[in-house]
Each structure stands twice: as C-alpha cells, then as structure tokens.
Q: What sequence folds into this?
C-alpha cells in the first residue's frame, strides 16, 4: 500500500535557524502531497499541497516542491520562529486508493527555542 | 476553527455508551472520523462520501458512525475500552470532478479518556 516516510522524529532549533524536514513517499498512482501542521490541543491544519511534478507549495514561509523522480516533498523554512513549534505531518492522497483517505507520515515534532 | 465543530471536547468514561457529534459549515460532500492516539498520526476510521459509508475494517464493531445529513456526523461508541482513549477528529473535504482530492479540513477533536 501507499506510505509516507518522515526521516526526522524530532527537531530542536533556535529562532532564525533553517528548518528542513525530509519526506519521501511510495504510491501506486500519482498522488497529491500535503503538509499539515498540528499545534497542541488542535486538529491538523493544512499548510499547503501539490498535485503534480515540480509544483511548489508554500505558506507562511514554509515551502516544498513535488519531486516525482526522487519521490520526495521536503519541507523547508529559512528562518523559524518560536511560534512554529508544532508537529508537522507529510501526507498523501491517492485517487487509486480513495477509500484510505489521507496517508500520514509519523510526524516530526519541531521545537524552536528563543 | 469554527467551520467544523465537535462536541463534546472532553469526555471521561467508564465502560459506558456515548456519542460524539460533528457539524461542518464548509458545504463539503465528504466527512471522516479519524482517531489519534498519543504521539501518533491520525488514523482513518470511517469515510462518508455523499452519505455512502466506507469503513476501515480494523475498527472494532463497538464504533458505529451515523451521517444524518451531509453536514453532520455522529460516532456512537458502546462499551468503551481503555484502548479507545484517544482524540477523535472529524474532518471534511469536497470530492468530485475539479475538486482537489482528499484535501481534508479537521475539527478540534474530542478527547476521550476511558477510566
């Protein structure tokens, strides 16, 4: 079945550091890729999505580019703030497997210290 | 997020029956229940697309969903078990031609604690 792998389980940074979270996927079809962010006590919120090769998604200074060749969708932000502390999920949806909904990675907990 | 409302937000139960409620104000035609256990990603329990139920076969039969109309979703739980302690999220999306497939919007969740 489809799967999403996030390499980093936890990341600790100082404010203004550069953030990278690696995401690789495996899917039988041509999936749509997503980044979601989840703050404590809240539901996951969509950051952005990308549906085709080389498409770049971005929001709030975060960005990721759909790379079909390397099956990746790495999340980056040039200068993090304390308010970016949250859990970040890479996810995919595959219309060939619609009934499975979103497939999430295990998540990356990002802690940003002042 | 007031566009998807869930109630109750917190629930502490012994081995009892209870229902969780969800209403979405986004005009979406698909609704979902997800379960999120501690330190894990959300896991799909049920999907309603145009009121047709698609069930995750690993979900215990004590969980019974109900979709009274396209904007409302219920989750009936009978004889809860300690392993049911988790946050239950309702989500919705717009499915169909031209719609970005499976772009889900989540509610704030109902935290269930089984004692």
A:
């Amino acid at each position: 079945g489809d799967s999403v792998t996030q390499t980093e389980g936890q990341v600790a940074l100082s404010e203004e550091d550069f953030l990278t979270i690696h995401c690789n996927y495996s899917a039988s079809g041509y999936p749509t890729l997503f980044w979601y962010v989840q703050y404590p006590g809240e539901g996951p919120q969509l950051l952005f999505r990308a549906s085709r090769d080389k498409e770049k998604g971005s929001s709030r200074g975060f960005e990721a580019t759909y790379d079909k060749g390397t099956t990746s969708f790495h999340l980056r932000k040039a200068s993090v703030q304390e308010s970016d502390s949250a859990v970040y999920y890479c996810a995919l949806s595959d219309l060939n497997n619609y009934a499975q909904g979103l497939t999430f990675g295990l998540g990356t907990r990002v802690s940003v210290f002042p | 997020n007031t566009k998807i409302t869930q109630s109750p937000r917190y629930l502490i139960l012994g081995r009892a029956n209870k229902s969780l409620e969800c209403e979405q104000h986004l005009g979406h035609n698909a609704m979902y229940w997800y379960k999120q256990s501690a330190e894990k990603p959300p896991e799909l329990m049920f999907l309603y697309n145009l009121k047709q139920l698609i069930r995750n076969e690993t979900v215990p039969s004590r969980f019974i969903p109900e979709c009274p109309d396209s904007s409302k979703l219920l989750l009936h739980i009978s004889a809860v078990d300690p392993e049911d302690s988790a946050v239950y999220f309702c989500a919705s999306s717009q499915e169909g031609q031209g719609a970005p497939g499976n772009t889900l919007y989540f509610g704030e969740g109902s935290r269930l604690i089984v004692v």
In short: Chain A has a mean pLDDT of 94. The two ends of chain A are 41 Å apart (CA to CA). The CA atoms of residues 3 and 26 of chain A lie 5 Å apart.
